[in-house]
């Protein structure tokens, strides 16, 4: 019994000695891990702010893209710190990196559509086919840009509606930007009657263009006969304005030309078709044949 008790005491002391050694070892590892986490967190924050401030100083660099890239740098540093902390406890970092890679691949496959929008958002921010405040049209989506995000773009339609368009729908289609160029051309087409004076109509339209200060002198406005239609001669007034003045000037000109033509006696005919020969006889409405009861009598006479 005494021998067994002594063996138990010896085993207990050895276990306690090993446990204390492990506690001391892992205590130092835990302290080192905490210090590493704190230092990594602080360094990642500093690098994040430094990267964001540096990118914002670059002329023409988009603020959204600057914030995104600085966040990518920050989280990359935090992941690196986490792997180093695991290494403090004897974890094989190679297996951790492989696990993270597999998890990233699985997440990427699951969020394929979302990642496609992110990639499209980055390309839109880098190439900048449109900016905030510009009016665009893709054929299916149109509106004024309010905000360009990494996942979607916020727009405002001409009738004041809010529209959220995924970035992938804006990246894979042709985009017409109506606000990018400083000047725009407009062709005002008006049809006059064949019996009216073409030269007089052109002079009236040119007088209206010359009297408008918002019409650019270079390129110079001009008129020409653009079409001989079925019922009218189409005269085109071509002029250039600044992009913000495009719609106001075009609408005012339409009204002014109509009023000026009315005052000059120049007609703007409705579409009409003239038939001749047998076709005209067939299409002419037939008059009703009077009945015997409808014939006047001597008493009525």
TrEMBL record:
> Where do the Mechanosensitive ion channel MscS C-terminal domain residues begin and end?
188-268
State the membrane topology. Answer: Multi-pass membrane protein
Where does this protein reside within or beyond the cell? Answer: Cell inner membrane; Cell membrane
InterPro entries documented for this protein? LSM_dom_sf (IPR010920), MS_channel_1st (IPR049142), MS_channel_C (IPR049278), MSC_TM_helix (IPR008910), MscS_archaea/bacteria_type (IPR045275), MscS_beta-dom_sf (IPR023408), MscS_channel_2nd (IPR006685), MscS_channel_C_sf (IPR011066)
**Role played:** Mechanosensitive channel that participates in the regulation of osmotic pressure changes within the cell, opening in response to stretch forces in the membrane lipid bilayer, without the need for other proteins. Contributes to normal resistance to hypoosmotic shock. Forms an ion channel of 1.0 nanosiemens conductance with a slight preference for anions.
Question: What does the similarity note say?
Answer: Belongs to the MscS (TC 1.A.23) family.
Protein name per Swiss-Prot or TrEMBL: Small-conductance mechanosensitive channel
